[in-house]
Design the sequence.
């Protein structure tokens, strides 16, 4: 039997809800760090420079997922736990230098916010949960070179 | 995060480590905090009053980052050590892990207000990570792509099948 003959069926919204909760959790953690940051730092350019820098590193740390038959997932040193651990320790230790305290205070919030943002960007904005005609099921689709591919088997998305 | 919302918090891994290795990571982390933190052993062991250089009741985002980073590094080191000694960390149920890491969590939580905050964040991240992982359709094992790569989830790398 052709898998596509099963029909769509209801979209499993709980998967999107789960992702949304995960992103929400990351934002909450980031918000907590922001809430304990001295207000004066928000008016210091060094805070925002540090925030941007560490958020960029967090964004790169996640990397990209594999698309079967199309690309491998990111698996370099930058994507390791060692790097994120050192990043947090070194970033936080900058606080021992009074001049760099605003930078140190931005590390935790920036890192978690960037993780949430990257997840939202990858799965909600550029990709999404769509029906894969060839799999006959709803799959997460990832974007590569302007095309959407099923994360399970690498099938290109076909609009029905 | 692979999607595992790779993100699925770094504490996810640390919790797995606690689960499999008991106090290992917490003890190493405790030692590191004593070395780098501003506390004496009595405070560290007997009180919730570890002085991290802050006024009472205040918390410091930079200290939060350091403690989170130490958690990641000590968790990673413990994970590496356990894997080197052949201790198998996969296959434990969530309840098994909860039973095992609970004492370690309690010990870690006594270190400082900041450490507790990290822990709370971690647990939060763990719960959300678990939910997101399930929602995203990842399983803990045998999630392979066509290149034979496994995804990282629950603190372990799934291996390519022969």
Sequence:
């Amino acid at each position: 039997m052709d898998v596509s003959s099963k029909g769509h069926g209801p979209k499993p919204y709980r998967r999107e809800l789960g992702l949304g909760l995960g992103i929400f959790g990351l934002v909450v953690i980031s918000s907590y760090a922001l809430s304990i940051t001295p207000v004066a730092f928000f008016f210091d350019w060094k805070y925002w420079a540090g925030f941007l820098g560490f958020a960029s590193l967090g964004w790169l740390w996640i990397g990209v997922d594999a698309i079967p038959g199309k690309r491998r997932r990111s698996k370099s040193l930058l994507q390791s736990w060692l790097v994120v651990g050192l990043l947090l320790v070194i970033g936080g230790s900058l606080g021992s230098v009074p001049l760099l305290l605003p930078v140190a205070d931005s590390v935790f919030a920036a890192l978690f916010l960037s993780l949430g943002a990257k997840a939202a960007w990858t799965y909600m904005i550029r990709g999404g949960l769509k029906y894969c005609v060839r799999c006959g099921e709803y799959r997460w689709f990832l974007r590569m070179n302007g095309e959407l591919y099923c994360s399970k088997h690498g099938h290109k998305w076909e609009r029905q | 995060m692979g999607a595992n919302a790779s993100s699925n918090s770094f504490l996810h891994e640390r919790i797995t480590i606690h689960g499999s290795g008991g106090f290992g990571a917490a003890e190493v982390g405790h030692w590191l905090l004593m070395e780098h933190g501003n506390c004496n052993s009595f405070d560290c062991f007997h009180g919730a009053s570890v002085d991290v250089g802050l006024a009472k009741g205040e918390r410091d985002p930079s200290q939060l980052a350091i403690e989170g980073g130490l958690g990641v590094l000590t968790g990673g080191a413990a994970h590496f050590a356990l894997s080197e000694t052949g201790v198998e960390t996969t296959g434990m149920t969530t309840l098994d892990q909860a039973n095992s890491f609970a004492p370690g969590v309690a010990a870690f939580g006594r270190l400082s207000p900041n450490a507790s905050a990290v822990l709370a964040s971690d647990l939060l991240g763990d719960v959300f990570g678990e939910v997101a992982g399930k929602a995203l359709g990842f399983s803990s094992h045998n999630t392979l792509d066509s290149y034979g790569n496994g995804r990282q989830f629950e603190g372990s790398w799934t291996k390519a099948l022969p």
Q: What stands out?
A: The first helix of chain A runs from residue 13 to 35. Residues 13-125 of chain A form one domain. Residues 1-5 of chain A have pLDDT under 50 and may be disordered.
